Amino acid sequence: MAIAASDIKFYYPAVTVEGPDLGGASTTSEIGTDKNALWDDVSGSEASSGDTEWRKIFIGLGSEVGADVLSNPVVWVLSTTPAGDEIELLGSTASGDSSNAQSDISGTAVTNWSTPEVKSDGVSIGNISSSQAIAIWMRRKVPSSTPAWADDAATIRIEGEV
């Protein structure tokens, strides 16, 4: 059985509130495609002074895929935001990663953030089966003096082999 795009699921982590505990283990709550499902609107003061925010998401497969595995998956930013903010990715290969912002992304030790805009430059994550969810961190950097933009959005893409 082939894995269809609809079989790939994006899940929220246990803690979605900004702060040192942001992240944690995967939940079974799917991230929707509606506005502000992942990022809040950038306020006027954030756009003026600049802002950086982090999100942890999990990528998994629905149970209907059975024993199929998405091998060698790669994640990249298919389309960037028109307003000029930056979306960066940091991959994890640990299934069930329960780390949080304080332990995973704080400080200067993490330097592997990237904004891959084509598959060949994408972030490789571990193989995904129906019993796993692999974490990926996302960082949105809003440079100071970013213009206001209604419905600012970026598109993240994942592809792998079956």
Keywords:
9 strands; 162 residues; five-stranded antiparallel sheet; globular; four-stranded antiparallel sheet; 2 helices; single chain; Immunoglobulin-like; mainly beta
Strand order of the largest sheet: 2-1-3-8-5
Fraction of residues in helices? under 10%
Give the termini distance in whole angstroms: 9 Å
The overall pLDDT average reads: 84
Question: Can you tell me the residue ranges where pLDDT is under 50 for at least 5 consecutive residues?
Answer: none
The total number of structural domains is: 1
Order of helices and strands: EEHEEEHEEEE
Alpha plus pi helix count: 2
Q: What is the class in the CATH system?
A: Mainly Beta
Overall geometric form: globular
- Per DSSP, what share of the residues sits in E-state strands of 2 or more residues? 35-45%
Largest pleated sheet: 5 strands, antiparallel
What can be said about this structure in brief?
This protein has 162 residues and is mostly beta strands. It has a single domain, classed as Immunoglobulin-like. It is built from two helices and nine strands; from the N terminus they run E-E-H-E-E-E-H-E-E-E-E.
